[in-house]
Amino acid sequence: MRAITTLIFAGLSAAAWADSILVEAEQFSQKGGWMVDTQFVETMGSPYLNAHGMGKAVTDAETSVAIKTAGDYELWVRTIDWSERLGRAEGAGTFSVAVNGVEVKQTLGKGAPQWAWESAGKVKLAAGEAKLRLQDLTGFNARVDAIFLSSEVGAKPPEACMMSARLKWDYVGSAGPVTDAGEFDLVVVGGGYGGMGAAISAARLGAKVALIQNREVLGGNGSSEVRVWAMGDTPPSEYGLADIVKEIEDDAKASPAPAEQFGDAKKDQIVRAEKNITLFLGHHAYGLEQAKSGAITSISALEITSGKCIKIRGHLFADCTGHGFIGQWANADRTMEEKGRMGMSNMWMWANAAQPTAFPRQSWMLPLSAKDFPYPRRGHAEWFWESGYDRHPIEELEVTRDWNLVSSYSAFSAMKNDGAHAERDPQKHAHAELTWLAYIGGTRETQQLLGDVILKGEDIESKKTLFPDGCVLTTWSIDLHIPEKQYVQGNPEHPFISKAIHRHAVDKRVGYPIPYRCFYSRNVPNLFMAGRNISVDRDALGTIRVMKTIGMMGVCVGRSAALCRVHNCLPRDIYEKHLDQAKNLWRMPGKERVVSIEALKQKL
Ligand SMILES: Cc1cc2nc3c(=O)[nH]c(=O)nc-3n(C[C@H](O)[C@H](O)[C@H](O)COP(=O)(O)OP(=O)(O)OC[C@H]3O[C@@H](n4cnc5c(N)ncnc54)[C@H](O)[C@@H]3O)c2cc1C
């Protein structure tokens, strides 16, 4: 096969000429209203563009490619008919592609219930610059992974499209060989509260830190993209683990709430102010290398909008992905509930506009009535719009997100078009408008990476088990979710409203100290973890999973990692040999700084 070229038109001179051209959608130079979706790389192979218009077609995405040889080009688009995959009517999200202003096929994204290349017909191209345009036709989450153009007779787009296969594609221009991005004391993957806490605290103790986050914003579920407010108390403690969390926490008055209340800019500023942190925002970690001992030596990451791949080497690593991806790839011991986990939520908001507005009823929507869903009071569809309890939390995550979209759109349509809950609004929702619906899902439960201690709910409830390395105070009740019976009947196959079962195991004024040994892997020797993927059983997950608690875990991990660098030792050694010194570091106020690991050594 002749060269496949990925050409984002930064200038024709950077391009290599070829007759087969591959354009990654997330690398379009103008994305218009299309959103970059990075949530499902592990299952469909790539970040992609998502026309998340909440019922209104989004503005076009555009880019240019360099065409060397004039001729007739076959065009394919890698896409999916997501509503058909769910077994609903086909074609929820359709779109068209135009080349040099001419539509090549009117409707794409209809009829393929899995990610696949769809033929979009032929186009005659002159040599020089060709402009590609994606035009959303529905406003309901059309998707484009990539576009393939070829003038070669019989050429086909690449069949294998997972990340590992893509790395072997013959990229020129935006992609290229994996380059070395340097070596760090600590490499943190995931920029939620756990990841931010780990990165900031290690950096303030003089460690060189890489922080990799696959979104353009920090905060994870606590960012404006997901809009979960950070909960958990920070009761008086002998340790100063809460200070940094107080710096980064949101100012939200509700969850969800308007974007600005989640303080994305503040989080960004605080992290960027740390000279010891190299921030790899918009980078998706996709793999790692290990030494014979099982120790991780590097993380590989894709810069999403350029396609460049980098390798980040490190002494210590922290899995703060929530999903436990790093541990999974490193074969860390871990557990996953088979069924009946807590699900994913895509919260949404609505408000009354000055004028009546329309919301299009669609054939793929569920026929819902008021008895099928609780009224989204105060314009908020909150945390309990949750589904995916029995679906695989990684393999089937996109399906779960899509069911959340279907149920949210269907409920809103029922309010607008079928009078559901009409008595709750003087205008019977004639003016109601969807103002926000998260396309990034908030996840709660994937897998637990196992450490030297697996904290159990009964340890906490009995209050008898206190560990010598107890440090981060968890204060939330044991809070686990199940489908809400009242709403299951209408949708027994796909329940989408949950109920929380709280067991008040913890006195929130005091808290229960989670042991340090839950924060490192028992068999991957240099892997820390902070976040919902730490070493706990399911009941304990119910309390430790709130974000202020997770932020404190991060701080504990970051400081312990700095101490590891002082002694050139591994996370387990901190407990076995240096616990007193670790406790002294955990006691430090959050603002205190040490310029380097060498200086920290002198200070101890
Ligand atoms: C709807 C909902 C309501 C909730 N209510 C509350 C509440 O009121 N208060 C509260 O405190 N908690 C609440 N929780 C729980 C809490 O949000 C989560 O437990 C918490 O966010 C987990 O934190 P984390 O840092 O482990 O993961 P996350 O917050 O998910 O952060 C992990 C980050 O890592 C990134 N990432 C993942 N994989 C990669 C990769 N391969 N490369 C690079 N980056 C990657 C992700 O994009 C993400 O930004 C709620 C959760 C949900 C879903």
What do you see in this structure?
This protein has 604 residues and is of the alpha+beta class. It folds into 3 domains: 4-166, Galactose-binding domain-like (Jelly Rolls, Sandwich), CATH 2.60.120.260; 179-337 and 521-603, FAD/NAD(P)-binding domain, CATH 3.50.50.60; 344-437, no CATH class. The protein has 15 helices and 30 strands. The strands form 9 sheets. Strands 13, 14, 15, 16, 17, 18 and 30 form a 7-stranded mixed β-sheet that branches. A 5-stranded mixed β-sheet has the order 1-2-12-6-9, with no helix packed on it. Helix 12 packs across helix 14. It is globular. It starts with a strand and ends with a helix. The relative contact order is 0.14. The model is unreliable at 1-18 (pLDDT under 50). The structure holds flavin-adenine dinucleotide.
Briefly, what is this?
The protein is of the alpha+beta class and 604 residues long. The protein contains 15 helices and 30 strands. The model is unreliable at 1-18 (pLDDT under 50).
Count all strands and give the number. Answer: 30
**Ligands bound to this protein structure:** flavin-adenine dinucleotide
Radius of gyration: 25 Å
* Quaternary status: single chain
CATH architecture of the largest domain: 3-Layer(bba) Sandwich
What would you give as the CATH superfamily of the largest domain? FAD/NAD(P)-binding domain
